[in-house]
Design a protein that fits this description.
heterodimer; A: three-stranded antiparallel sheet; 30 helices; 77% helix; globular; B: alpha+beta; Beta-lactamase; six-stranded mixed sheet; five-stranded antiparallel sheet
């Protein structure tokens, strides 16, 4: 009877994993998190069932073998793990209802599989891993919030890089040697492998270099400074990690530049580096030769890989059953060959499903990262997503003889404290980035929203707001509302420019601006009654406002000798920071206008404004120009390097012949579709965001092209 | 309004590259992940043999042994060659009803694995019955039955072959001309697989007799005069019209440069044409032919015939060696033409070449397994005739058939003349480097000569002359076949 249950368990596991895989891909097709909500619960439920089934199978296998102690241990630890995961999931869901649920569900799935496999392989290690993962999960609960709030990290790229480099150097000098490589060191009695954690710093470091511009010089700087880290890793003989860092670097450069040629260049450089490594390092040669033919030296160098292949092969399609195989004959099975252990006992079908779920997780990450508008987080997120992907490929590909062994762990599944901790943090950072992404969506969708993204309860209110937004069925009404919002924002912007001259305190400026905005909102509400008139009035209002604003800008720029592409700055992906900050303040201002603020929010606003937005306009303008100056060389490189952006500049120059008109146009785009106030060049890129996110859903609500054109026509009349 | 279109193109250009980059990366990774899946899928479907037979995987095979009851191996007539039985204590034991007769082709599975037990282990040690049936067995705490292997071996012929070898060292392999099915594969000295565990030390350490060696496929012997089939084939290929005009005067010795070749036992064959030289196995004449051959073309033919490479069979076999290139010395060339020098062939390989002659030039891959079935009768795998290509033209093959028939009618193989069936073939008496002992006796041929059905190759180690020793042994086996 026990045997029957064990045998049945094998098939149940495969069916559950298959269902999970199916639903995870279905969920991938859902773009918005609400759409994923239902599937998310299914995914979580399947994961729970799978975990229970796995633990039961293992306990039964021990019971069948007559090992009562092991059986009891497994049940207890399994219950603790399930409880821990459940608690963590509830907390995360409570604090971050807006997180990327597919990412989270996949993470849970992987963790659960890892728990079961580790329990089976080494109970003591599983226990330790459980503690580490629990600690990691607790820490990672704060990360998304930190990432979301502390945009300061953008300025800390070099600190991240220097800290990472220093840590790696310390390991190189003082580290202990395992398997011929200096990977780890002991801190307070805990063995610690810094290169795992530094992956995250590395992503921030490179993103910090590249996010403003990805011209040739910046890329060269990024590549050169990354090489320092990679070389330290190489001389520490941590070649697997050096490879991961290199792939991350290439991916981030690709993301920053949008040019696939860097991938080819990187691949070429990688091939050259691989050849050099083959010549320089004997263990690289050994691993390469083992990969070519593991059978001739099966006693010695080929032992590990052949045992891995034996495990997969003996397991066959349906596996020997959890707890019934012999995965421990593979040296380092808990770290580098966990996939083989899974395939041996749960079967290759299960293994293939696991590969597909890994891919699903990677796709979820990449799609999320691809949708983020904030260049810094987009680049950093790309690095982290690719880090996960390449690690999976290296582990599974290495254990199945597709590629030579690199000695890399399977993220979330393999044993290893540093690796687990680093992966959890990485996932947490990606969740943080997904929150930034959600902000962008809401900022874009609900321009009229009476809500602030910096509010403590923002997630809650956002949800409400979102729900409210959904209910707005009548298109016409929605359009009007949107126009109201736009008008308010525009007026507000106008106001703030004026008020900056008049008032010396930010609060004053905000108050005045808020009052102005409310006035405009009120007047817009009146106009709503006369639907026919609305467009014209609003457009006039805002064109006028914009004209004034542009004039003010242009004047100040002229004074300092910059006949000034204010607009092109706005549109330039080189990203004039000051302009960006103006946007940022505009957002703050909107929040104020909405009279939605609490203490913390205000503090935050103040801090930001004090820091970045100076009291009077002249200084602001100067700063602007300084910013322009400092970015000048970048601009030049863009001019040379980047045809696309170059053209953009030229176009903008052309438009600036008729400055008012052009500025109005720019700003119409900008405000109307503003999705990301933080973004450097969102002014130009908003359309694409809209295309991706909303056009399918509410094309009628945001007839961007037509609407914009209409405005231009009217503008001409005007 | 030109501005509008301009604005549009502008917008298109300004499309954010983030999503495009992410999608490209998704595609790149998807390809990599799918490559991983395909790789591991192919490994699982194709390379299972090494997993199931490598001794370094014995720990896992022990687990499998506790889950699966090893399948049965059947002969072509349905009789059992190997089966699993439970002893009184419920332990599984392997039983071989024919004892040592099928020892080499079937092999054994205690103390390592050999033969079909080894090659078919992935099937024998896995079960093809449905999942519900498996769960039913688990319910009853029973092992699942392994798959059954149906071989091509015919006990009647195998027994005759084994008996005819007697206490001589040697091997016999019998295959079907039109299919390549192996009907018998016997090798002596032998061992009893039923008692392999008890006798393991004696059997595995007997270096003199090496009873574990399957001489039919793994033994390598100088082909001697049987190689003249290939020398003649090349001569006919180069002289398709005038090969019958070949004339040579044998003085019992042929000298070329500093080297010379003697005819067997110093026989003097006098004036010979190709037919007589082949039938009488005149060394001098073939050494002479060897000097005339186009070395490049002959190399090509030998390559086509699978020399110096692993035979495409699914069981263990040795690689036949030959040296034939443009830089070879005169001595090497003369010796190679008559099947001496470093040339070494397995009986299996010679059997394949003979089969190609009998089959009008098309070589077929010999095989031992007809099909594999699950315990519930469901087909798991079946094996088909596999052509290895036309290694000679039909007319070339017909000439060789003619020459080989003449060997039995009037030449060295006349011991087989006068049987109720007609035989064609070639004898060989391969000299061994230390000339104090007798030569290896070869016979390779087929029957009936007019409509070939069966190919037989016999090697008797240090038996003496092929015509006197090997041909009668072949006759006994063919008697059993045509009985």
């Amino acid at each position: 009877m026990v045997l029957f249950l064990i045998e049945t368990g094998k098939y149940i596991n495969i069916v559950l994993a298959g269902l999970y895989c199916l639903f995870s891909y279905i969920s991938l097709g859902r773009k918005d998190e609400d759409g994923r909500n239902g599937v998310f619960h299914i995914l979580e439920f399947i994961t729970l069932l799978l975990f229970i089934s796995g633990v039961t199978d293992l306990a039964l296998a021990y019971s069948y073998a007559g090992d009562e102690v092991a059986m009891r241990n497994v049940i207890l630890l399994g219950a603790a793990e399930a409880a821990g995961m459940f608690a963590f999931a509830r907390l995360m869901y409570h604090f971050y209802p807006e997180m990327n649920r597919l990412l989270f569900a996949d993470m849970e799935f992987m963790l659960c599989i890892g728990f079961v496999v580790l329990m089976r392989l080494n109970y003591r290690h599983a226990l330790r891993q459980y503690v580490i993962i629990a600690a990691g999960l607790v820490i990672s609960m704060f990360i998304p919030m930190l990432i979301h709030r502390l945009k300061l990290i953008k300025k800390m790229g070099w600190i991240c890089g220097a800290a990472g480099g220093a840590a790696l150097l310390i390991v190189y000098i003082h580290g202990s040697i395992t398997n011929g490589a200096k990977l780890s060191m002991k801190i307070f009695g805990l063995t610690f492998q810094p290169s795992e954690i530094i992956k995250i710093l590395f992503a921030f470091f490179i993103a910090g270099i590249l996010y403003k511009s990805a011209g040739f010089v910046k890329i060269a700087i990024a590549a050169a400074s990354a090489s320092v880290l990679i070389i330290i890793l190489t001389i520490s003989r941590d070649l697997g990690m050096a490879l991961i860092y290199s792939v991350m670097l290439i991916a981030m450069i690709y993301m920053a530049s949008g040019r696939i040629r860097y991938v080819f260049i990187g691949a070429g450089a990688g091939a050259a580096a691989a050849t050099a490594a083959y010549r320089l390092f004997s263990h690289v040669r050994v691993r390469f030769n083992v990969w070519r033919d593991p059978w001739t030296d099966i006693d010695n160098t080929g032992y590990q890989l052949t045992q891995s292949l034996f495990a997969i092969g003996t397991g066959n399609w349906f596996g020997l059953g959890i707890g019934r195989g012999k995965p421990t004959t593979i040296p380092d099975v808990e770290d580098d060959f966990i996939f083989s252990a899974i395939a041996e006992e749960s079967g290759l079908i299960f293994g293939i499903i696991l590969i597909l779920v890994c891919l699903n997780l990677l796709i979820a990450m990449l799609l999320m990262v691809g949708r983020v508008k904030d260049r810094f987080f987009r680049i950093a997120g790309m690095g982290m997503a690719v880090c996960y992907g390449i690690q999976t490929v290296l582990t599974i590909g290495g254990g199945t003889m597709l590629i030579p062994l690199t000695g890399v762990t399977l993220p979330l599944v393999s044993n290893g404290g540093s690796s687990a901790m680093a992966t959890l943090l990485l996932f947490a950072v990606l969740q943080g980035i997904s929150l930034i992404r959600m902000d962008e969506i809401y900022d874009g969708v609900s321009a009229e929203s009476e809500d602030t993204p910096l509010n403590n309860d923002k997630t809650e209110s956002k949800k409400e707001n979102k729900a409210a937004h959904k209910k707005e069925k009548p298109v016409k009404e929605k359009k009007n509302k949107k126009e109201q919002g736009d008008g308010r924002r525009r007026a507000g912007k106008n106001e703030i420019n004026e008020s900056a001259q008049r008032a010396s305190k930010n609060n004053d400026a905000k108050n005045i601006a808020a009052a102005g905005a409310l006035e405009v909102a009120a007047s817009a509400a009146e106009v709503t009654a006369a639907e026919e008139a609305v467009d014209e009035v609003m457009e006039e209002t805002m064109v006028e406002a914009m004209g004034t604003a542009t004039g003010a800008f242009a004047t100040s720029a002229d004074e300092t000798g910059f006949s000034g592409d204010i607009e092109s700055d706005a549109g330039d992906p080189v990203g004039d920071e000051e302009y960006d900050e103006e946007d940022f303040n505009e957002e703050d201002f909107d929040d104020e206008a909405a009279e939605y603020s609490d203490g913390e929010d205000e503090k935050y606003d103040e801090k930001d404004i004090d820091e970045e937005y100076d009291d009077d306009e002249e200084e602001y303008a100067e700063e602007d120009i300084d910013g322009e100056d400092s970015d000048d060389d970048d601009d030049e490189y863009f001019g040379d390097e980047d045809e696309e952006y170059d053209e953009e500049d030229i176009d903008d120059d052309e438009y600036s012949d008729d400055e008012d008109e052009e500025y109005a146009e720019e700003d119409i785009d900008n405000d109307e579709y503003s999705c990301d106030e933080d973004d450097e060049y969102d002014g130009e890129d908003l359309d694409s965001e809209d295309d991706i996110e909303y056009d399918e859903k509410s094309a009628t609500v945001f007839p961007d092209e037509d609407y914009a054109d209409e405005i231009i026509d009217d503008d001409k009349k005007f | 309004m030109g501005k509008d279109s301009k604005k549009k193109t502008n917008r298109e250009k300004k499309n954010d590259p983030g999503m495009a980059v992410a999608l490209t990366t998704v595609i790149l990774f998807s390809v990599t992940f799918i490559a991983m899946i395909i790789n591991v899928f192919l490994f699982q479907s194709k390379d299972r043999n090494v997993v199931y037979t490598n001794s370094y995987n014995h720990e896992r095979m022990d687990i499998i042994k506790n889950m699966i009851s090893r399948g049965t191996i059947y002969a072509a007539d349905g009789s059992v060659l190997a089966r699993s039985v439970e002893d009184d204590e419920g332990n599984e034991k392997r039983e071989y009803p024919y004892g040592e007769i099928f020892a080499h082709p079937v092999g054994f599975c205690q103390k390592g694995v050999m033969g079909l037990e080894r090659d078919m282990q992935p099937y024998l040690m896995s079960t093809g019955i449905g999942i519900p049936e498996q769960l039913g067995n688990a319910m009853d705490d029973k092992k699942n039955p392994g798959n059954d292997v149906y071989t091509t071996l015919e006990p009647k012929i195998q027994e005759a072959a084994f008996k005819s070898l007697g206490d001589k060292k040697g091997a016999i392999i019998v295959t079907e001309v039109k299919t390549g099915r192996i009907l018998a594969m016997a090798s002596t000295p032998c061992f009893d697989p039923n008692e392999i565990e008890e006798n393991w030390d004696a059997v595995s350490k007997d270096a003199e007799n090496s009873p574990l060696l399957n001489r039919a496929s793994q033994g390598l012997y100088p082909p001697g005069s049987t190689f003249k089939i290939l020398t003649a084939a090349e001569y006919i290929r180069e002289h398709p019209k005038d090969w019958e005009d070949y004339a040579f005067k044998c003085t019992g010795k042929f000298t070329y440069g500093d080297e010379s070749v003697n005819c067997f036992h110093g026989n003097i064959h006098g004036d010979v044409d190709l037919r007589t030289a082949f039938a009488k196995s005149c060394n001098s004449s073939f050494a002479n032919i060897g000097t005339e051959l186009d070395r490049k073309k002959f190399s090509k033919m030998l390559e086509d015939m699978n020399f110096n490479e692993k035979l495409p069979v699914e069981f263990e076999s040795s690689v036949s060696r030959i040296l034939w290139d443009e830089d070879m010395t005169d001595k090497e060339m003369l010796q190679t033409s008559i099947g001496q020098s470093i040339t070494m062939m397995s009986p299996l390989h010679l059997n394949m070449i003979t089969q190609a002659v009998a089959n009008d030039g098309e070589m077929l891959c010999p095989y031992l397994t007809e099909k594999v079935e699950a315990a519930n009768g469901q087909m798991i795998a079946s094996y088909k005739v596999t052509g290895l290509g036309n290694v000679m033209t039909k007319s070339e093959a017909e000439v060789l058939q003619d020459l080989m028939r003449e060997v039995v009618v009037s030449g060295t193989g006349d011991d087989l003349n006068g049987k109720p069936y007609t035989v064609a073939g070639k004898t060989g008496s391969a000299e061994i480097s230390d000339s104090s002992t007798l030569s290896h006796a070869w016979f390779t041929g087929y029957a009936p000569a007019e409509d070939p059905e069966v190919v037989i190759t016999v090697i008797i180690e240090k038996g003496g002359s092929g015509g006197a020793v090997a041909a009668p042994v072949a006759g006994e086996v063919l008697d059993a076949y045509f009985d």
